[in-house]
Design brief:
By secondary structure, the chain is an alpha/beta fold. 24% of the residues lie in helices and 29% in strands. A hairpin with a 2-residue loop joins strand 5 and strand 6. It holds the Pfam family tRNA_Me_trans.
Length: 374
């Protein structure tokens, strides 16, 4: 089988490519140039896509003895990932750019080019597993990336390979060292790859500009502070609110709501953050088939954490197929624009991803029924 191995310059994708070679596939490595002005060096463990990363990927390919290319996807990445990220924050949402990159770049633009060039599959270093064609959590739950892969369709999963998902991360590093790969001890990338400084508010401010608004008390409506744009806030945020005085009861304040139309950011106690139901649009069912009714499942609303037992019911929305989620226990810090990923627990084979959608609304009203069987 002809396999295109996406090589970021990190240890995971290098070992994924190596394992594809070991499996007897005809492997070609490719590094995606996603920045129009890549830095010469990586800054610590932040960011990626630097010329250093491209060099690391090339050296790994040389060790493996496979052809290697660099493909320029910078314009596509800007249009489909960076611009969408900025627009979502300006609209008071909290997007996940890694999820968007998987959806529109790696498993769409890149995979489509791979198929056009005669490749049968795309291998990446993501921590997830495909078992009988089904997307499941990685063995290493601390590194599991099935959440950011849950937007993939049945067709995209059919031509995907995740060679490292069955192995804990420490063992991947040890394997890389045994193979003589210089990236064995390279730090993982963190935060948002196209914001190497880690200062998301400054990045957004430079692109959105100043859009003044008020920070108000969620209970009284009293104006507590002024701000320069809703893009500086996300649901559940506690720091950087710009409020001088503590709450009357001395308890911490959190962002509880964002209204981009009026520029209003509401803050209140942690109780205001409790969510019992979630609405989602742009549903993707990984099996390729929409459930015919409510399904008992577990929902995850953040890349790391934010899990709760739930009942998901397919519905039609203005943006196409979606679903409504009733939670068995409340979640906090659930923001519009995040992904709601649905899992079927399976102790023997690992949790199965069966659907995902973009969160459009939440409610603090506790549902009456908590089981699809009722």
């Amino acid at each position: 089988m002809r396999v295109l191995a996406a090589m970021s310059g990190g240890v995971d994708s290098a070992v994924a490519a190596a394992r594809a070679v070991d499996a007897g596939h005809e492997v070609v490595g490719v590094h995606l140039a996603l920045s129009t002005a890549p830095g010469a060096l990586r800054t610590g463990s932040r960011g990626c896509c630097s010329r250093e990363d491209a060099g690391d990927a090339r050296r790994a390919a040389d060790v493996l003895g496979i052809p290697f290319y660099v493909w320029d996807f910078a314009d596509r990445f800007k249009d489909d990932v960076i611009d969408e990220f900025v627009e979502a924050y300006a609209a008071g949402q909290t997007p996940n750019p890694c999820l968007t990159c998987n959806e529109k770049i790696k498993f769409a633009a890149l995979a489509d080019r791979a198929v056009a060039l005669g490749f049968d599959a795309l291998a990446t270093g993501h921590y997830a597993r495909l078992v009988d064609g089904e997307l499941r959590r990685a063995v290493d739950h601390d590194k599991d990336q099935s959440y950011v892969l849950a937007v993939l369709t049945r067709e995209q999963l059919d031509r995907a390979m995740f060679p490292v998902g069955d192995t804990p991360k420490p063992e991947i590093r040890a394997e890389a060292a045994r193979r003589g790969l210089s990236v064995a001890d390279k730090p993982d990338s963190h935060d948002i790859c196209f914001i190497p400084s880690g200062d998301t508010r400054a990045f957004l401010g430079a692109r959105i500009g100043i859009r003044p608004g008020a920070v108000v008390d969620a209970d009284t409506g009293e104006t507590l502070a002024e701000h320069e744009g809703v893009h500086g806030f996300t649901i559940g945020q506690r720091k950087g609110l710009g409020i001088d005085a503590p709450a009357a009861d001395g308890r911490p304040r959190y962002v509880t709501d964002i209204d981009p139309a009026t520029g209003t950011v509401a803050v209140g106690s942690s109780e205001h953050l409790q969510v019992w139901s979630i609405s989602a649009s742009k549903a993707v069912w990984t099996s390729g088939q929409t459930p015919d009714g409510p399904v008992d499942c577990v929902v995850q609303v953040r890349a790391h954490g934010g899990l709760a037992p739930a009942v998901a019911t397919p519905v039609d929305t203005a943006d196409g197929p979606g679903f409504e989620i009733s939670l068995g226990e409340p979640l906090t810090g659930v923001a519009r624009g995040q992904a709601a990923v649905l899992y079927l627990p399976d102790a023997d084979r690992g949790d199965l991803v069966f659907g995902s959608g973009r969160i459009t609304a939440t409610s603090s009203v506790r549902p009456v029924s908590l089981s699809a069987a009722e």
